[in-house]
Design goal:
It is a single chain. With 229 residues, this protein is of the alpha+beta class. The chain has one domain: mRNA Triphosphatase Cet1, Chain A (Alpha-Beta Barrel), CATH 3.20.100.30. The chain contains six helices and ten strands; from the N terminus they run βαββαβββααββββαα. Strand 4 and strand 5 form a beta hairpin. The protein starts with a strand and ends with a helix.
């Protein structure tokens, strides 16, 4: 049974990001996997078909869409997972499956046949859709994240910044992969506030998130990473 959650995204200014971090740290706990400074680095590799179906659906604002990505944290390949993110309007569902480093290398080389009989349904689905649509690695995206959590409605608030792209390089496991800022052409650094929760957003957290001139804004790290193509 799909477990959809609310997901709201806001583009904010760096000053607002620091203000929100100070506010949220007073009432929410940091993510348990964060480094000493409360942040962690996320690296994702997004898949798309040769016609860029996922990218075009995002750009056109298609209400029902999905995308696949592989992700690991703090440039540590000992914990890698495949993720499928499905979206219906502002509701999202994320399904994950673990991958070994060797599995990941095989996928990057286009050797996905071993997934056809995998025990995990998501791995079999990825193989089927890779065969059906011709999914291939498209973009490596790095960014820094600070996360705050609250058990009420499983609320997670994340602050993302320093979003970078490998442009056309997809050497996902290369920790020395050169990347460039996705916001180099912007007038100010891109910072993203994401708010995720189940049935309702707790009132005390909603109150802390109030900032002047902040509006809901559809945003995709995959989309901005492809701007240099």
């Amino acid at each position: 049974m799909p477990q959809y959650r609310h997901e709201l995204k806001y583009r904010i200014m760096p000053m607002q990001m620091h203000l929100l971090a100070a506010r949220l740290s007073a009432v929410m706990k940091p993510d348990s996997h964060a480094r000493a400074d409360g942040t962690y680095l996320i690296r994702s590799l997004y898949f798309d078909n040769p016609e860029d179906r996922a990218l075009k659906e995002k750009t056109l604002g298609i209400s029902r869409r999905e995308k696949f990505r592989i992700r690991y944290y703090n440039l540590d390949p000992t914990f890698i997972r495949l993720e499928k993110k499905s979206k219906i309007n502002r509701l999202t569902e994320k399904v994950t499956a673990p991958l070994t480093e060797e599995d990941c290398r095989r996928i990057l080389c286009g050797d996905t046949a071993f997934l056809a009989n995998a025990d995990v349904p998501l791995l079999r689905e990825f193989f089927a859709k890779q065969q059906l649509y011709g999914l291939e690695p498209k973009a490596v995206v790095d960014y820094t994240r600070r996360t705050f959590v609250c058990p009420i409605a499983d609320t997670r608030v994340t602050l993302d910044y320093n979003i970078r792209t490998g442009i056309r390089e997809t050497d996902f496991l290369n920790t020395a992969l050169p990347t460039v800022p996705c916001d180099a052409a912007e007038s100010e650094p891109v910072c993203i506030l994401e708010v995720k929760y189940n049935e309702f957003l707790p009132g005390h957290i909603a109150a802390l998130l109030q900032c002047d001139h902040v509006r809901l804004a559809p945003f995709s790290k995959y989309e901005i990473s492809r701007r240099y193509d």
